[in-house]
Specification:
With about 240 residues, this protein is an alpha/beta fold. It contains six helices and eleven strands.
Length: about 240
């Protein structure tokens, strides 16, 4: 996979990257970051995905999957997002290698990926942000911004994990920020906000989070209404 370069930014230190994952935490984080900081596309790659078209009222709709890299003058980082995560291992490795090739050409010093960490807690009032890193000093730095070390052993799957491995293999330090979620099937705005709060300190940029706060309040209101309706359905005397 090759990226088509529209222009080359200079004097950047970080790559921030994420593709849609559990609860779409990475998708929400990247879309919000790129939009609120008014970043523009400087590189793009197209993928051989999806292997189908969608039809609606007999009309065929199709959009080829894409991966885009963004920049804005005055920022010290580039940001990468996309429509999907490659399913095949070969395609995933190919994408990660291409992104790291681009990063090396720009003399990127750190790769930061974002995603979700699925926990078993029934209710999460304030999502934690876990981290995994390729170097201890980087971990100490991110803990100063409120992130929590991943203590257990396990795997960070997909693009948001593998990109760090390819970066480490090729001499670039990296860190993954994972927002805590308990329901992978629902958009997790609260976890995305928590990741953005840590990330904003790390990259030195203030990010407006008001729109995420509005979405969080909507979800809280819906949950409260759901609890009220369930209580009404209970027979008298049943707790």
């Amino acid at each position: 996979m090759r990226f088509k370069i529209l222009s080359m930014p200079s004097k950047v230190k970080f790559l921030v990257a994420g593709l849609p994952d559990m609860g779409n935490v990475a998708g929400i984080v990247m879309d919000h970051l790129i939009t609120k900081l008014n970043m523009v596309i400087f590189a793009e790659a197209r993928d051989e995905w999806p292997p189908y078209v969608r039809h609606e009222s007999s009309r065929v709709h199709f959009e080829r999957g894409w991966f885009r890299v963004y920049f804005r003058d005055g920022l010290k980082f580039i940001a990468m997002n996309g429509t999907h995560q490659p399913v095949e291992s070969t395609s995933l490795y190919n994408l990660c290698e291409s992104v790291i090739d681009l990063s090396l050409n720009l003399n990127i010093e750190r790769v930061i990926t974002v995603g979700a960490a699925h926990t078993t807690d029934d209710e999460i009032e304030e999502p934690r942000v876990f981290y995994a890193t390729t170097s201890d000093p980087l971990g100490e730095e991110i803990e100063g911004y409120g992130a929590v070390k991943l203590e257990s052993e396990g795997f960070i799957t997909g693009y948001n994990g593998l990109l760090l491995g390819i970066a480490k293999e090729r001499g670039i330090n990296g860190i993954c920020l994972l927002g805590e979620i308990n329901d992978p099937g629902v958009k997790q705005y609260h976890a995305a906000k928590a990741v953005l709060q840590v990330l904003s300190h790390f990259i030195g940029e203030e990010i407006n989070l008001e729109e995420l706060d509005e979405e969080i309040e909507k979800i809280k209101a819906m949950k409260k209404l759901g609890r009220m309706l369930r209580r009404r359905d209970r027979p008298p005397g049943v707790m």
